[in-house]
Amino acid sequence: MEPIIELLNQTKEWFDPSLEGIFDDSNKDFITAKASMYSLCSGGKRVRPCFMYVVGRMLNCDMDDVLVFARSLEMIHTYSLIHDDLPCMDNDDLRRGKPTCHKVYGDNFATLAGDCLLNRAAELVLKLVMKKPQYAYAAYKMFQCSGIDGMLGGQDLDLSSAGHKISSEVLHELHTRKTGALLECAICTPVYLLDGDSSTEILRVLTNLSKNIGLAFQIKDDILDLTADEETLGKTAGKDLRDDKPTYATVFGVERAKLMLEAELDSAYANLDSIDYYGFDSKELRLIVDYVANRDR
Ligand code: GRG
Fold this sequence. Notes:
Farnesyl Diphosphate Synthase, two-stranded antiparallel ribbon, binds geranylgeranyl diphosphate, globular
């Protein structure tokens, strides 16, 4: 089995059983709870829990506490997908090959399910913070990364730039916020659990690495959309161009986008070397960077 698949499977074994504890007997029969669980358990890759799992173990964190944060982050990610698929946003009927939440439960309950997941994510993390107040900064960062200064702000930029030509700066800002913020949260939360808000060298390196991984993934996605054939890609090719969507490949051109990708990957490998230099084992993070570098779909 490919090492990255093995790592994702290991993450799922650690992570997925924790989803059973999100709702209890007093609320699990609400349609909103069912709609929330439908989207949480419909085949997500668990990329963000995987980052937390890898860094948490690398830094020797209390993995039960990491799990609480990983679960809340995946709940926030899921809420964003449910709302993103709604008719008033991207209006998608399918996600992960299955009907979207609003197709099964209706727009009203899908909206509530998104709200519920965000709200419950806060409840579950704050319950732990009441026992361990030293985790308050990690909780604060999680909701900052999801809000207007992170993912939600990125979605705003995405919607408000639709149909316009956007500058390379706005494109960069859009991705850094829309998908980068949660990836950064996933990679850095274990450091916040150990060190609170003190800025350490390892935090600086991991923050930079998360940006490298997020950008490299996006730039590669945009290049593949323009250059790969549909059979290799496993999805419709050339869709970004047809939808007139600004991407790294359409804004900068494929050749410049390739150079930008190389620069992000070089920086990612340099950051992995720094992690080893500081005495931690970057082996599993390296698997993730190798996967981003080598994937062709
Ligand atoms: C395999 C551990 C591992 C990492 C892969 C950085 C990365 C490398 C993947 C990031 C995926 C990402 C942020 C894509 C941007 C577009 C987007 C937000 C897609 C939806 O997020 P996914 O792909 O959704 O994480 P699922 O359905 O898996 O929950």
